[in-house]
Specification:
Blueprint lengths: L1 E4 L5 E4 H9 L4 E4 L4 E3 L8 E5 L7 H5 L4 E5 L2 E5 L4 H8 L5 E3 L11 H10 L6 H11 L2 E8 L4 E8 L2 H22 L10 H9 L4
Parallel strand pairs: 1-9
Antiparallel strand pairs: 2-7, 3-4, 3-5, 6-7, 8-10, 9-10
């Protein structure tokens, strides 16, 4: 997955296109590539702004105090990290997973990925392990704020291909569970609980 760190990224949009969106008096968004999007938003839309401005004094007034803006000819350059808390609420409905709380990832929004995650926990395979695998092996975008000193991280994951992600997770868990049943004394085949056996069947081990 590609990391889009709002601490570092500058989003560039066209001044004329932004002004046109403002003048429609419709709710619109600006995505991470600087494109203008309108409701209903697509599942692939990752927004750094969403709103319906009513007063147009200048672009800074339109977007609000939590944005840093520079007008450069026909372009508007935007830094959005200070509005992160609002952007969580704006983007969570379309995110594949939410890694913005101290508790970490608790579920996947896609039901088939969630089935894998749910069954994997029976064999102590955590959502953190699965998310790290997705971020390493799968296509998508991790919208985040990440700062080194002092270290700070908060992010939302957006997978580009759920079918590919499902295959990666399933094969990993299948291999892991098979190895545990064969080699881990805590998961002997004949001593599996009902839930563990159900999970093993889900991963086509027993």
């Amino acid at each position: 997955m590609k990391k889009f760190n709002l601490f570092n990224e500058i989003i560039i949009t066209e001044k004329a296109t932004l002004l046109q969106a403002i003048n429609t008096s419709k709710i619109f968004g600006i995505d991470i590539n600087g494109n203008i999007r309108y409701e209903p938003f697509e599942s692939s839309d990752i927004l750094i702004y969403k709103g319906k401005p009513e007063i147009v004094e200048d672009f800074k007034t339109v977007l609000g105090k939590n944005y840093q803006l520079v007008e450069d000819g026909e372009r508007v350059l935007i830094k959005a990290f200070s509005n992160w808390q609002e952007l969580i609420a704006v983007n969570t409905p379309r995110a594949s997973y939410d890694d913005t709380t101290a508790d970490g990832v608790a579920e996947f929004s896609n039901s088939e990925l969630e089935d894998i995650g749910w069954h994997a926990t029976e064999f102590n395979i955590s959502y953190r392990t699965l998310v790290e695998l997705l971020e390493e092996k799968c296509a998508g975008t991790l919208l985040c704020i990440e700062q080194e000193e002092p270290y700070q991280f908060s992010g939302l994951g957006f997978l580009s291909d759920n079918e590919s992600a499902k295959k990666v997770l399933f094969e990993f868990c299948q291999s892991k569970v098979k190895d545990m049943i064969e080699n881990d004394p805590d998961f002997k085949r004949e001593e599996l609980t009902d839930d563990e056996e159900e999970a093993a069947k889900f991963f086509k081990i027993v």
